[in-house]
Please model this.
Amino acid sequence: MERRLPRTASDLLTGLALAGLTAAAWAAWLGWDQHRDVRGDGTTTGPYEAWQVIGLVLTLLPPVYWAASRRHALAAVLGVPLGLTACAFLDWSDDASGLFMVGVTMVLVGSLAVTAAVTALITYGKRAGRPRGTAGGTPAGGR
Model:
């Protein structure tokens, strides 16, 4: 007899796993670059380059797809923004200007919106690809 976790426990574990994976991806892509670059005209950029953020986003797409395609959409929508927001808070909290919470809030709102949109597209795509009269991918006739 196969024992399964209740749905809420499974979603909670999936969400926490996604948050942990997100934190690891943040560390791999953004955690090592902590200095700002000073240009010749005195302006500063950074600390992150565009390719680092793009790499982070592309790294997070497969786990979000995995979770959303296995009916853990809520875990995907909450897990990734939780991980990104926690990392942003920890990484930026030593900011002397005191404006780091503005950036953390922007990370929370932006990642929540984008992850929700991507998850909705994945979920819709999976449902649209399923033939009519099926439940969970099994044909109506039981074959």
